[in-house]
Amino acid sequence: MTHQHRPWGYSNSVDGQTPQWDLHEDTLAVRAGVARSGFGETGEAMYLTSGFTYDSAEQAVHAFADEVDHYLYGRFANPTVTMFEQRLAAIEGAPLCVGTGSGMSAMFASVACLVSQGDHIVAAASMFSSCWVVLAEILPKWGVTVEFVDGNDPAQWAAALNKPTKVVFIETPSNPMLAIVDIRMVSDLAHKVGATVIVDNVMASPIMQKPLQLGADVVMYSTTKHIDGQGRVLGGAILGSEDYIKNHLNPFIRHTGPTLSAFNAWVLVKSLETLSMRVVRMNENALAVAQFLETVPSVTSVNYPFLPSHPSYELAKSQMGGGGSTLSFEVAGGQAHLFKVMNALRVIDISNNLGDSKSLITHPFSTTHRRLDEKLKASMGITQSLARLSLGLEHSSDLIKDLELAFKG
Ligand SMILES: *Cc1c(COP(=O)(O)O)cnc(C)c1O
User: In sequence order, which residues have a C-beta less than 8 Å from that of residue 313 and are 6 or more positions away?
Assistant: First the structure.
């Protein structure tokens, strides 16, 4: 049996089943990418197979020569993984998507497939610590130069992007400071010097920000975060143009093997069906909690892009549909007071994950960003008094009550 044509792929190819109008992304989140087997199942099938068979030796020859649409081997592609990739591409509005085993393998492959010895990368300094390690430590060992700028400072971007540059890497909003980078402004500057702009869109999710529409070339995700969003599986994804995926990313990925498993892809394809509902609710909860925290006397600052007090509030409003599920805040009394508050929480869990249906709080200084040296942490704003709080799907009244009582001690 050859696998069935994928009628709802983003290509929107008309084959008698595809509607003649542009579908809303909430519809695509449920319908895109479905490739039914011969049984007409409603739930997406999970193809747990490492290999595929051929009707003849000649068919295998043609398959390997890329002349026929036939799966070859689980490291390259799998029908369940394809369903996930096509569905996410449809939601993002991207020509193509490639799933990976984790967010970090997506981040690494998205950059590494473009650079060789002697190439130059410019990145906004405020970012997730493992992305920092890839850019500041691993790639420089291979002869790639990396320059970090303050992502909020147009003058630093202009100065850095006045020479040939291969990749510009930005995380906006950033984890855990929620700093915002102007994607349009940076993309315009980057394209003048020939750079490919890669956006880590984990914190916003595809529901709240579409970097490709703002001029970026490539978007990457940790699907572990909002896309699964229920604390079950690791995964990643990279989205971009046909040229980028076919000529740069795929040749790199096929041979280095950061493959997304069929099981995880199956969990993720079903998660996409509820992504927008979940993310909208999490954003509402985050805004309500951010507003509450601004009224707590011992909270000295709250970082949330959709609070008017955020330094990039106007920019955030112009490029995002919501402020995201995650905020950070600082308390008076340093780490001792903060730990007391965290330990007194009864609903919110202490955990370093984010984008989950369960609200989670962490102390980046001593956990996620522990590995970075003190000076760097200070320059990023990651102090001992800073907590990162990811808001989940509980009712906001319970989350606010939990925090209120914890602060009262
Ligand atoms: C979690 C995270 C990653 C890494 O994703 P994993 O799935 O944990 O590998 C990358 N970037 C950001 C912004 C993240 O929050």
Answer: 305, 306, 307
| Domain closes at, from 254, 272, 290 | 272
Q: What is the number of domains present in the chain? A: 2
Q: Which of 402, 182, 177 minimizes the C-alpha distance to 304?
A: 177
C-alpha 202 to ligand 1 mean position (Å):
7
pTM of whole model > 0.85? yes
What is the extent of the structural domain holding 205?
A: 3-272
Boundary (domain end) residue, out of 272, 297, 323: 272
Report the atom number in ligand 1 closest to the C-alpha of 105.
9
User: Looking at the structure, do residues 160 and 249 belong to the same domain, yes or no?
Assistant: yes
Is any ligand 1 atom within 6 A of the Cβ of residue 102?
Answer: yes
Q: Is the CB of 200 under 6 A from ligand 1?
A: yes
Distance CA 25, CA 218 (A): 19
Q: 245-292, pLDDT tens digit by residue?
A: 999 999 999 999 999 999 999 999 999 999 999 999 999 999 999 999
How far apart are the CA of 395 and the centre of ligand 1, in A? Answer: 26
